[in-house]
Amino acid sequence: MRDPARILVVDDVADNVEILRMRLTSLGYEVVVASDGEEALAAVASELPDLVLLDIMMPKIDGLEVVRRMKADATLPFIPVILVTAKATPKDVVAGLDAGGDDYLTKPIDHGALVARVRAMLRIKALHDEVHALNKDLEAKVAAQVGELERVGRLRRFLAPQLAQAIVSAGDESLLGNHRREIVAMFTDLRGFTAFSETSEPEDIMQVLAEYHGAVGPLIREAEGTLDRFTGDGMLVFFNDPLPCPDGPERASKLALAMRDAVNALNTTWRKRGHRLGFGIGMAQGYATLGRIGFEDRFDYTAIGAVINLAARLCGEAADGEILVSGRLAAAAEAVAVVEDLGERELKGMSRPVSISCLRSLKDTATS
C-alpha cells in the first residue's frame, strides 16, 4: 500500500464530498473524488485507491451496484469499501455488506467514527497487500523449485544425482549440448540372457532384471558414472562427461570390479532358481561425440564414436566374469589395477586387430 494512502470519496452532494475531503486531507491522506457511480468505477480503475468511501444513494449507478462491480472485477486489487448512507436500518446494513461492502458509516458522519473506520480499513488493506505480496513471492519460488525438480528429474535419468543437481544449480545445461571429449566407455552384459529369456516366464525375467539393475545401479551412482541407457540385460556407462572426471580410468576400473562382484553374489541366488547366467564387461578409452538426442518431451544423453563400438565389441568378446579393456585404457589403469595383456585379437566389426587386456583386480586388493 502506498504512503500516504489514497482514498476515493464518492458522493453526488458536493458539500458532503468537500467535508470528507478536508477531514481526510488534514489526516495526511491523498484524496480523489467522484460525483456518481460511473465516475466512481472509472476512478477506481485509473487511480487504484487504497480505500473507497462510497455513498449508496446516487444517480445513474447506486453505491450497491458500484461495490458489486468492484468486487466482481478480478483485475482489481483488494480495495476495501466503506458504505456511507443516511439509512442505517438492519436491512440496509445487510444489503450493503451482502453487496460487498466492508464497513458502514451513517450520515451525518461522526469525525471520530470516520477516523477509526478509515484507519481500521487501511490496516486491513496493508495486511492484505502484505499477504498478497508474500503469496506472489511464494508462488514464484514454488514455480522455480518445480522447474528445478523437473530439470533434475530429467537429468537423473542418465546422470548421477549429484551431477544432475550440480548442472541444475549452475543453471547451465549447455554442458549437455553436442561436443567432443575423451571418455572411458563401459558396456556390460548378462551372458546367457537370450536363452534364459526364451525359456523363462516373463515374471522371472523381470525379477532377474530388477535384481540386476538394483545391484549395479547404486554402484554406478556412487562412482558418478553417466548412465547412457539400459538395453535389457546390458547397459552403457561412461566417465569424464558431461562433467570432467580426470580419474575416469580409475573410477571405471573400480566400478567394473564392484559390478562383477555384485553380479557374482546374485548368481548364487539365480543358480538356486535354475537360472544359468554369466556377466561380462568391455571397456575402452577414446574420443566420442556426446550430447542430447530426442525431442521436447523425451530426450536421452548419449555418446557416439569408435570408442563406444570398441567397448561394445570387447563386452561381446568377454567370457563370464571377464573384464576386457582396450590397450589404451589398460595403460591408463595400470597405476591402480592389475591388468593382464592378452595380445591382439580380431573383433567383429573391427577392420584390424585390437590390443586387449583383462582387468583382474585393484592393486591394493591383488593377491600373489
Structure in a nutshell:
This protein is of the alpha/beta class.
Describe the protein.
The chain has 368 residues and is an alpha/beta fold. It folds into 2 domains: 6-135, 3-Layer(aba) Sandwich (Rossmann fold), CATH 3.40.50; 171-365, Alpha-Beta Plaits (2-Layer Sandwich), CATH 3.30.70. It is 47% helix and 26% strand. The chain has 11 helices and 13 strands. The chain has helices at 14-26, 37-47, 63-72, 90-99, 111-155, 161-170, 193-199, 202-223, 248-272, 306-317, 327-333, and strands at residues 6-10, 30-34, 51-55, 81-85, 103-106, 179-191, 226-231, 234-239, 278-295, 298-304, 323-326, 337-345, 354-362. Strands 6, 7, 8, 9, 10, 11, 12 and 13 form an 8-stranded mixed β-sheet that branches. Helix 5 (111-155) packs across helix 6 (161-170). It is rod-shaped. It starts with 5 loop residues before the first strand and ends in a 6-residue tail after the last strand.
The residue-averaged pLDDT reads: 88
As for the number of domains, it is 2
- How far apart are the first and last residues' alpha carbons, in Å? 81 Å
CATH superfamily of the largest domain, by name, is: Nucleotide cyclase, GGDEF domain
CATH topology of the largest domain: Alpha-Beta Plaits
User: What fraction strand?
Assistant: 25-35%
CATH hierarchy: architecture of the largest domain: 2-Layer Sandwich
Order of helices and strands: EHEHEHEHEHHEHHEEHEEHEHEE
* Helical residue percent band: 40-55%
Quickly name the level 1 CATH class of the largest domain. Alpha Beta
* Rg, nearest Å: 38 Å
The largest sheet is: 8 strands, mixed
